[in-house]
Structure formats: structure tokens, C-alpha cells
UniProtKB/TrEMBL annotation:
Protein name listed in UniProt: asparagine synthase (glutamine-hydrolyzing)
Highest taxon of source: Bacteria
Recorded metabolic or biological pathway in which this protein acts: Amino-acid biosynthesis; L-asparagine biosynthesis; L-asparagine from L-aspartate (L-Gln route): step 1/1
GO molecular function: asparagine synthase (glutamine-hydrolyzing) activity; ATP binding
UniProt keyword terms in alphabetical order: Amino-acid biosynthesis, Asparagine biosynthesis, ATP-binding, Glutamine amidotransferase, Ligase, Nucleotide-binding
EC number(s) recorded for this UniProt protein: 6.3.5.4
Presence of keyword Signal: no
GO biological process, one term: asparagine biosynthetic process
Length: 614
């Protein structure tokens, strides 16, 4: 796992721009604390920061190969889980390896198959290859968008990086955010390819982007396809288990300490239990597991619309049954509300998402884990794959017309009072933006011949979650973990599992009327009964009233700076009213507004964006 960056400029020799290239590379130091390297040859420059996971001495980058027709050089971030099979195949084709790293396997796979190598990879990855033979840059991203990858075209080439901050470090980059960028921040949707910053884009998941002297072209090598599902219930359950066993086995491979993230929900519990069994049987090792908790949360827990039970009792049930070496990371409201922690989260994410304690706790959890492990397996994306959210079962959300999670969000929290000024709200026209994006997203769903209206509607809902919703969560998890040099792997994003379950009819996905029926039955033999019976509970949020009070104090400090740029967007009167509310339980929607205002202000302080509202 690493951070990558680079610059291609066909009108100049970048040897004279080494300082700029090194500055871009340095922004990725958190993603790669173990090593740094740059490679420059004429119009191409590559930068790399390394987090060493496999072949610690042999995987240094940028990595290059000399051919009779020119140099081929690569910077690579991620993991290729089938690299041993690919290595054997490439060895049979005459390739000779000098390291044991998956990086060299990917580079030599490019020499053998060109950009088509992407179709052979199983993993999470974002990498760029400068092909000196054709004077082209090839950028490739994994199928589900697990690893981030951004680029910005210039007048004579392109800038790219794992994160926007790498691109923004180059003097050519624009720090402008237009209305569409702001809409992405406030609409709670993820438009494929959109990067918030004007002139910047994402390499979309499952896509190859090739840059040459004549411009840029893209090729989609993978997308969700509709196919008939012919397996019965028992066969489907058995195949899901077979896939899960293989996926977890592959993703446990590491030359550094690894662990699991355990929330006590079905997803993380199943993954942890499988990992514990496999390691115990194969090597005799004990899995380490970690969970986040808040001071006093379990003892004083109050059920609400989203969360009916605290996580910790279920976490401990799994830890006992699977015999993991477990540790709870217990956080206080002072830690969660610390402005320095908020600053680090914003720096990690590059954007102000306003998730507050949920982002802060994730960052602090990963920071604590990094003292013990370098790799963690997560249950992220199982809800999107198997149908775990409430909106999958909500009749109003099923009707269509908008993204189903927006319906559920409104049902849970009520209409959110906008923290934005009236003029900004009118300019954004979020309802119109969401409506247009929804129509575009639904148009990409292929209907199976003979599929009933209900099954097609559920296919649409599944497709929306897998292509528009999960990417927000994957980006959040990647940024928070890599900010402290922790690699988080996501077994439920294996494309074989995603393809298979996506094409399983909803009647099978929910054959017992519950969420994630297939996953529950496929892993029933390794789960405690308490977890098997547990209802879905989202990522935890602190219920401590002290946290809300701390937020109000921080916002009062912001209000004491009336000339701050944030008040060009935020309704100051709304904030002044919100800091006077005495009862946090009544003000949960308002709490989100406080979080958003604080995030926006910090983001503006860090990045000094030029905001264009016309």
C-alpha cells in the first residue's frame, strides 16, 4: 500500500522540475511512511511513498524495466491478491523476476499484456505506468474504486496522484471549487469521476485512462453486468461461503502484522471468524481484533431510530467464540471533539464531509491499531453487496424517484435545516442536481429478460448502492487509514463476490425476510448466536451530551471570527441559534450542521479554495 503521484509534460524536460515533483511526492508521506522515491525521464516524472507490506526489501518504487525500445516505469498503490498465480504464468512465458513483490508482477504483466492486464488482476489497486516505447502514460484503477486515484489535465499533459493534495501541490493546479463541486459536498451522493476540485477528475473504478501527445482516452474494462442466476438457495449459500473462504485466505497474506476490525455486526463478525479459523488451522496463529467504543456508551446506551443495541457485548461474544486477541479502543468526548483531530481528518480526506465524531473515531481507532498492526481486514461494503440497510426494506425508498438512502436519511432525521445561506441554497439547487444524477444512474442498469418489476426495482437499488453509495464509504475508510499508515483490506469488495451476489434475485438475498440472508446463512457455523440474530446497526456515534457541548464551544470560537470565508456560504444566524440549544437529544439534526460548519471552516483554512457560485 502506498501513495503515488506524477506529472507528464510533453513540452518540457521535467528534470528541471524535480523540486515540484518531490513536493507532490511528499504530500503522500502519510500513505507511505517507509520509503520514498522519484523517477524522471524527459517528459515524465513519477513519485512514490511506500508502506511496505509484501517483500519488504524488494518492493522499492518507482520500479522500471529497460526494453530494447525504451524504459517502462511504474508507481503502484494497493495489493494484487492473485499475484502468485500471475507470477507463475509470467514465468512460464519467459519473464524473470528479481524481487518477490506483487509490484514487479504487475509491471511485467503490463509488458506481457499491455493495459489488458487489468482484466487479470484480483485486488485493490491504483497504478500509473509510463511507457517510454510509446511515450504514453497508462493509469488503471481497481474495479470497485477501493484505492483512490485523481488526475488533472494540463495544456501539455497531466498531473496525477492518489489524493487531490498531491496534484494541488503542483504550481499548475487550480484551487477552484465551482457550484458542481459544492453540490457534491452537500448532496450526499457520489457522481462517478467527480473530484470536487474544478479541472480535476477521478480515474473511475474499472477504468484505464491513457494519456498521449494527442490527448486523453478512457477504456472501461469492468462494470456491473446483468446475468441470469441459475443456482438454487442451497447452491447459492454454498457458493457464497466458498468465495468468502477463498477471499479471506488471499487477503490474509502479509509480511507484516495484520488484524481485523470488529464491530459486532454480521459483516465484521463473519469476516473475523473466518480469518480466525483459517489462521488457526494453517499456521496456528491467533487473529488480533480491534473495536471502537466510547466512554460510558455501553452502560448508558439509549436505543434510537438507527441503533437498537450497543456494539460492545456482541464484539466480545465474537472475540470469545473465535478466540481472538481482542482490544477495545475506548474514546472520550474530549478526544473526539479535539480541533487538532478534526484538522487531521480534514487533511486526510481533502474535503469537509461533516461526519464529525464518526470520522474522528475512525481516525483515532486506526491510529491506535497502527501501534500493533500494519494491515487490517474490514467488513466494509457487505451491506451494499448483500442488502443490509433499512432502505432496502422501506416501501417509500423502494418506490424510486431518488437515491434510496436519501429517503431513509430523511425518514430517520427529518428534514435537515440547511446551514447554508439562502442565496447559496438557491444557487446550488440540490434537488435538481440529485434528480439529474439519479436519472443518469438508473439509466446504466441493465434489466434481465423476463425480470419482474419488483425484482428489477431491487436490482436498481442494489446497483445504486454498489456504484454511487459504497464509493463514499470506501474513500472514507481509505483516507482515514492511510493517514496513519494502516492498510485496510475489504474482502466483501472482491469482484467475484460482487458479481455473483448482484445477480442473485432479491427473493434469494432476503429469503427469510431479513437483511443479508445469504451472508448470515453462509457463515452461520462460525457466528455466535447473538450475532446471528442481531439486527443491522450502523457505525457507532457517541451519545455523550458532553460531545455536543464541546461542538458548541468550538462553533462559538468560529463565530468570534465574523470575517472568516466560511460565512460566504454558511448562515451565521442559524449557527448562532444552534449554539444556544441546551438539549442535545433534541438537536441531532442541528449537530450535523455544527459539524459541517466546523469542517468547512477548517478546509478553507487549509486549502484556501476559490469558491465560484455562478
Amino acid at each position: 500500500m502506498c501513495g503515488i503521484t506524477g506529472w507528464v509534460s510533453y513540452d518540457r524536460n521535467l528534470v528541471s522540475e524535480r523540486t515540484a515533483v518531490e513536493a507532490m511526492t511528499e504530500t503522500m508521506s502519510c500513505r507511505g511512511p517507509d520509503d520514498a522515491g522519484t523517477w524522471i525521464d524527459g517528459p515524465a516524472a513519477l513519485g512514490h511513498r511506500r508502506l511496505a507490506i509484501i517483500d519488504l526489501p524488494g518492493g522499492r518504487q518507482p520500479m522500471s524495466v529497460e526494453t530494447p525500445d525504451g524504459t517502462v516505469a511504474m508507481v503502484y498503490s494497493g495489493e494484487t491478491y492473485n499475484y502468485t498465480e500471475l507470477r507463475r504464468e509470467l514465468t512460464g512465458r519467459g519473464h524473470r523476476f528479481t524481487t518477490d513483490s506483487d509490484t514487479e508482477v504487475v509491471l511485467r504483466a503490463y509488458l506481457e499484456w499491455g493495459p489488458a492486464l487489468a482484466e487479470r488482476l484480483n485486488g485493490m489497486y491504483a497504478f500509473a505506468i509510463w511507457d517510454g516505447r510509446s511515450q504514453q502514460l497508462v493509469m488503471i484503477r481497481d474495479r470497485m474504486g477501493i484505492k483512490p486515484f485523481y488526475y488533472a489535465e494540463t495544456s501539455d499533459g497531466v498531473l496525477f496522484g492518489s489524493e487531490p493534495k498531491a496534484i494541488l501541490a503542483n504550481p499548475l493546479a487550480r484551487r477552484e471549487v465551482t457550484l458542481d463541486g459544492l453540490r457534491e459536498l452537500f448532496a450526499l451522493i457520489k457522481t462517478p469521476g467527480h473530484a470536487v476540485w474544478e479541472g480535476m477528475r477521478e480515474v473511475e473504478p474499472g477504468t484505464v485512462v491513457t494519456v498521449g501527445r494527442n490527448g486523453l482516452r478512457t477504456h472501461v474494462y469492468w462494470e456491473l453486468e446483468t446475468r441470469p442466476h441459475t443456482d438454487g438457495k442451497d447452491e447459492t449459500i454454498a457458493h457464497v461461503r466458498e468465495l468468502m473462504d477463498d477471499i479471506v485466505r488471499r487477503q490474509l497474506v502479509s509480511d507484516v502484522p495484520r488484524c481485523t476490525l470488529l464491530s459486532g455486526g454480521l459483516d465484521s463478525s463473519a469476516m473475523t471468524a473466518l480469518a480466525a479459523r483459517q489462521l488457526r488451522e494453517s499456521t496456528g496463529e491467533t487473529v488480533r481484533s480491534f473495536a471502537v467504543d466510547f466512554v460510558g456508551q455501553t452502560e448508558n446506551f439509549v436505543p434510537d431510530e438507527l441503533r437498537g443495541t450497543p456494539d460492545t457485548p456482541f464484539v466480545h461474544d465474537v472475540a470469545r467464540e473465535s478466540a481472538t486477541e481482542h482490544q477495545d479502543i475506548v474514546l472520550s468526548s474530549d478526544e473526539l471533539a479535539d480541533p487538532e483531530v478534526r484538522s487531521r481528518v480534514i487533511r486526510a480526506r481533502d474535503i469537509p464531509m461533516g461526519l464529525g465524531d464518526m470520522d474522528a473515531s475512525l481516525y483515532l481507532l486506526f491510529k491506535a491499531i497502527r501501534q500493533h498492526s500494519t494491515v487490517a481486514l474490514s467488513g466494509e461494503s457487505a451491506d451494499e453487496v448483500f442488502g443490509g440497510y433499512k432502505q432496502f426494506f422501506d416501501e417509500e425508498a423502494r418506490k424510486g424517484g431518488t437515491f434510496p438512502w436519501l429517503v431513509q436519511f430523511s425518514n430517520t432525521f427529518g428534514e435537515d435545516d440547511s446551514i447554508l445561506s439562502n442565496s447559496v441554497t438557491r444557487a446550488l439547487d440540490l434537488p435538481g442536481y440529485i434528480r439529474d444524477n439519479y436519472a443518469s444512474a438508473v439509466s446504466q442498469v441493465q434489466r434481465l429478460e423476463g425480470e419482474s418489476d419488483f425484482e428489477y426495482r431491487m436490482r436498481v437499488i442494489c446497483h445504486l448502492h454498489l456504484t454511487r453509495f459504497v464509493r463514499v464509504l470506501l474513500d472514507r475508510k481509505d483516507r482515514a487509514s492511510m493517514a496513519v499508515g494502516l492498510e485496510v483490506r475489504v474482502p466483501f469488495c472482491d469482484h467475484r463476490l460482487v458479481e455473483y451476489v448482484y445477480n442473485t434475485p432479491w427473493s434469494l438475498k432476503s429469503f427469510d425476510g431479513r437483511e443479508k440472508s445469504l451472508l448470515r446463512e453462509a457463515t452461520a457455523d462460525v457466528l455466535p448466536r447473538s450475532v446471528y440474530e442481531r439486527v443491522k446497526s450502523p457505525y457507532p456515534s457517541t451519545q455523550d451530551p458532553k460531545y455536543h457541548t464541546k461542538l458548541q464551544e468550538n462553533v462559538r470560537d468560529l463565530l468570534a471570527k465574523p470575517s472568516h470565508q466560511v460565512f460566504d456560504l454558511v448562515n451565521r444566524d442559524w449557527l448562532e441559534r444552534a449554539v444556544k440549544v441546551d438539549t442535545p437529544q433534541i438537536a441531532q439534526a442541528g449537530r450535523r450542521g455544527l459539524e459541517r460548519a466546523l469542517d468547512l471552516a477548517l478546509w478553507m483554512d487549509m486549502y484556501s479554495p476559490s469558491i465560484t457560485l455562478s
